Amino acid sequence: MTTEVEVRAPIVRAMRSCPVEVSIAVLGGAWKMTIVKYLLDEPLRYGELRRKVGEVTPRVLTRQLRELEQDGIVSRHAFPEVPPRVEYSLTPTGKALRGFVTELNQWGAEYVESLAGPE
């Protein structure tokens, strides 16, 4: 039995254009790449992730996590305990972003360094 995956409208629109647009539709959002970067190392609880990501509001972080989950990048695991505990981790599709995220991280660091100019 095959289950249909509901694809978000921005991704459907991007699919009509090109693969780069699909990538941007999935990963181009406030904090999405940063979320993926921190989940590459280990699964994290919501509070841990929020502290690592930085100046993100709870509303935005929750929305980004839901979209990443819907798009098959992030997995959410709720543990049946009191108080409730939820952990986020990357799916195999999310883990496949490791090289991409590493390169973007390196490029960003070099770019920031170049803005400082020669000393």
β-strand amount: 5-15%
Q: Characterize the overall form.
A: globular
Instruction: Report low-confidence residues grouped into runs of 5 or more.
Output: none
Give the CA-CA distance, first to last residue. 63 Å
Strand order of the largest sheet: 1-3-2
Order of SSEs: HHHEHHEEHH
| Rounded mean pLDDT score | 91
Which percent range fits the helix content? 55-70%
Q: Main β-sheet: number of strands, strand sense, barrel status? A: 3 strands, antiparallel
What does it look like?
This protein has seven helices and three strands. With 119 residues, it is mainly alpha-helical. The chain is globular and about 55 Å long. Helices cover 57% and strands 12% of the residues. A hairpin with a 5-residue loop joins β2 and β3 (85-90). It has a three-stranded antiparallel β-sheet with strand order 1-3-2. The mean pLDDT is 91.
Secondary-structure blueprint:
Elements lengths: L8 H7 L3 H9 L4 H8 L4 E2 H8 L4 H13 L3 E6 L5 E6 L1 H4 L2 H19 L3
Antiparallel strand pairs: 1-3, 2-3
Question: Brief description of this entry?
Answer:
With 119 residues, the chain is mainly alpha-helical. It has helices spanning 9-15, 19-27, 32-39, 46-53, 58-70, 92-95, 98-116; strands at 44-45, 74-79, 85-90.
Characteristics of this structure?
single chain; 119 residues; mainly alpha; 57% helix; 12% strand
